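Hi W., the zinc ion complex you wanted:
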Amino acid sequence: MHCPFCHNPDSRVVDTRIADDGASIRRRRECTVCKKRFTTIETSSFQVVKNSGAVEPFSRNKVIAGVRKACQGRPVTDHDLALLAQQVEEHLRSSGVSNVSSEEVGKAILPFLSQLDEIAFLRFASVYRSYNSLEDFEDAIAQLRLQRQENDDADKTADDKEATVSTPGNTRDSAAGVPQHTGVRKQHARKPRKKQIREEEPTLLDS
Ligand SMILES: [Zn+2]
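Structure:
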């Protein structure tokens, strides 16, 4: 950017600091002409608009904190939570927008959480979607069952395909005795958004 004092287009960076817990970078610059110093701040253009209207940078830690409560007493590790937050961020960023609402963040968490732990999913969804009757839970459980069934079917289809299509990745995985999830994941990644909830198999989350 131009020097704010003399509008000279050149400046040199004299100091760089990570700020806001990694969400931004501050650079101290010196104008090459007038030698005055000024600060620039770089932030990602990916932000969350809260219900109050306040805007803040997207934070994986906030996603983790929100989901962690729902995971109390469940076999979900910190690593699982970190991966889930990463998936949620990647999913939201892949839409190409620079702002998302808190609502959309919650919505993006649900499919990944349902893959991770069904009980945690029900707890989280009951708050996020404001379940207020047994029927709400029954509907959600019916959805989970359906999804489980679809996952099983998808696994069978994927296994069939892998039997005929052999990529170097699959060969290496099977040689190492690792279940052949590489092909499954690639296949799912190409599918439209509706199928994206199955992108990560529970076994992948454990690895
Ligand atoms: Zn200047």
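The first strand starts at residue 11 and ends at 19.

W.
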